[in-house]
Amino acid sequence: MSQGISILLLLISYLLAAALAEKQLEMVLEIYRHGARSPLSNITENKWSTRGQLTEIGMKQSFIRGSIIRNEYVNKLKFLDPQYDIDKVRLRSTDRDRTLMSAYSNLLGLFPLGTGPKLPEGIDLKLTKPPISLSVDDLSNEKFALPYGYQPVTILTGADEDELPWGATEDFICPKMKEYHAALYKTPDYKMIQAAFEPTVRSLAAVLGRKPEEFDFIQAAKVYDVLIADRYQNNKSIIKYDSPLWRNLSILADVALTFEKFGEKKLIDYTSTPLFTELFSKIDEKEEGINPQVKWHEFSAHDTNLLLILNVLNQSIFTFPKFNL
Length: 325
Hints:
alpha/beta
């Protein structure tokens, strides 16, 4: 993925039209993929105890990204305040553990320990203790509300029953989507891609001790999902990372997942509506002076959300956004 597109996906900065002459940054929409996760399935010898959960590496990736953003938008540009302000910073995540944990890890980098709220000067610390007798650590010298100046934040998930998950790609968004997905397997494009990757599928089947006819290129991509999770966890791999088969599988996975999610234009139309409706609503609110104090909208999301933006912008390059992009 080119550096220009990476920057496009990491931060979409919106310059308010009235301020363009002065090049004054008014609001930022940040959309990123969660950090490294455990695989969604398990078909290698490395046994994972979780499915699709953020790993320690994923937490570290997200924290570092938050620290980079703090250095740029707090330290250099002075755009954000050093301390979290609930009126200026709005946070949103899909209703998945890995995106929520990525958001919290990212925010710990953006608003690190020592930036949290302090107790009122001269407050009677007896007021901070529950009305029961407990043996707890003595924090009488702690000046912050929470240990080490931790800053709690509010993250919305949009998990209400009447609110569709923005940018989601599951079939339940529209009854027709399941029909569109099924139709993909009957298209000439499916047959063409299957034929192009048949040698790679056969090589993978041989490594796994399976019959080639048990796989198509989409199922092979699910195997790659496990392999890439193993790599980020430093697990032993059944395929060498610098081998031709690994490189071919990487290409196969990008093509397969892009085809499966957005191989039909109607799929893009249906899945893009919730996401872009929300993004444009934030821009409209800024222009109309609604909640003018809000400067930062952050969205913790998935690779499919970012790829969706590329497709709508006619920038599809059959490359899925990597972890923590």
